[in-house]
């Protein structure tokens, strides 16, 4: 089968940073399905793995953790899916990704794609939707009864792929007032379009920006980027006994900043359940099924912003370059081999 991969971590402009090659057709385990890939999305994790996750010498690694396609084979222990089903999913980071014609994937972390979306629109959803959903409802537990009076959520990085889904899911599935950060006029408008109640500029001091909103201190903060830059300000800003969830990897986070207020620190990685085959791995299927229902009901929308066709080396490099620029809004999808 056709695939795109890399052997060595190189700048995206380098000829060998990504290249096409002929890969062996995947074989599936009893609990897996084989999917013929129709569309893929590119995420910051692709850039991170390309830069820091080179395979052992002599091996080629296939990136890609957002896909939509059609099931062509079903393992003997799989229920709820059959050949011909149109599905969407993110996969797991420690296995071959979706930048290939076919992919083997655990049936417990996939779902039937929204009926109202085409493959490109659906491929933009899984990784960001699950990250946002798990972060909000499993880590921050915003809908669990608590003593938090201030039903206010701050989203750091509201216009990115994850931020875009946080805003929508929080507005549809909770009673939270959602404040998002964005710096450029177009990214601020994007956040407002998705339902953010207030948008503030993260280039400025967050405490000063917050005072302008007139809102009480946020009980929950979902940080999607640059947590190092904002951590001390967040500790000062947040309500006592609040909760902070992060998806990045801050290197200089001073935990004692959060002690006085007993603020809980949480990390969210949507790969955890799939990588470690947790007891609740099936929850990812349930989350994606709920997201599909919300999409088909018109309550949330795909955050697809750019489609490139076909799936080839040149177009995939362009997508990586766009993500690396830090200026992309929404999701970039490639479709069709």
UniProtKB/TrEMBL annotation:
InterPro entries: ADH-like_N (IPR013154), ADH_Zn_typ-1 (IPR014182), ER (IPR020843), GroES-like_sf (IPR011032), NAD(P)-bd_dom_sf (IPR036291), Zinc-ADH_QOR/CCCR (IPR051603). Coiled coil: none annotated. Keywords: Metal-binding, NADP, Oxidoreductase, Zinc. Residues 13-334 form the Enoyl reductase (ER) domain. It comes from the Bacteria. Belongs to the zinc-containing alcohol dehydrogenase family. Quinone oxidoreductase subfamily. This is Zinc-type alcohol dehydrogenase-like protein. It comes from Vitreoscilla massiliensis.
């Amino acid at each position: 089968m056709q695939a795109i991969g890399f052997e060595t971590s190189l700048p995206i402009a380098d000829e060998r940073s990504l290249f096409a090659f002929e890969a062996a057709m995947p074989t599936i385990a009893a609990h897996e399905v084989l999917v013929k890939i129709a569309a893929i999305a590119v995420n910051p994790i692709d850039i991170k793995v390309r830069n820091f996750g080179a395979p052992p010498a002599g091996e080629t690694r296939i990136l890609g953790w957002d896909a939509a396609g059609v099931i062509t084979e079903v393992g003997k222990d799989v229920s709820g899916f059959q050949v011909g089903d149109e599905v969407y999913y993110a996969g797991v980071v420690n296995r071959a990704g979706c930048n290939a014609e076919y992919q083997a994937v655990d049936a417990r972390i996939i779902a039937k794609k929204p009926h109202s979306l085409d493959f490109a629109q659906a491929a933009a959803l899984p990784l960001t939707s699950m990250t946002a959903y798990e972060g909000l409802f499993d880590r921050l537990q915003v809908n669990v009864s608590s003593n938090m009076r201030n039903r206010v959520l701050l989203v750091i990085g509201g216009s990115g792929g994850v931020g875009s889904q946080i805003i929508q899911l929080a507005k549809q599935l909770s009673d939270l007032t959602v404040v998002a950060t964005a710096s450029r006029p177009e990214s601020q408008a994007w956040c407002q379009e998705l339902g953010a109640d207030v948008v503030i500029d993260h280039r400025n001091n967050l405490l000063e920006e917050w005072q302008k909103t007139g809102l009480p201190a946020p009980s929950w903060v979902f940080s999607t980027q640059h947590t190092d830059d904002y951590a001390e300000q967040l500790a000062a800003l947040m309500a006592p006994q609040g909760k902070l969830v992060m998806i990045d990897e801050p290197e200089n986070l001073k935990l004692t900043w959060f002690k006085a207020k007993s603020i809980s620190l949480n990390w969210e990685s949507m790969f955890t359940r799939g990588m470690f085959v947790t007891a609740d791995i099936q929850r990812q299927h349930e989350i994606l099924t709920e997201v599909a229902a919300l999409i088909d009901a018109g309550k949330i929308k795909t955050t697809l912003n750019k489609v490139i066709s076909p799936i080839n080396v040149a177009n995939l490099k362009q997508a990586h370059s766009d993500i690396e620029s830090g200026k992309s809004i929404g999701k970039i999808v490639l479709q069709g081999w």
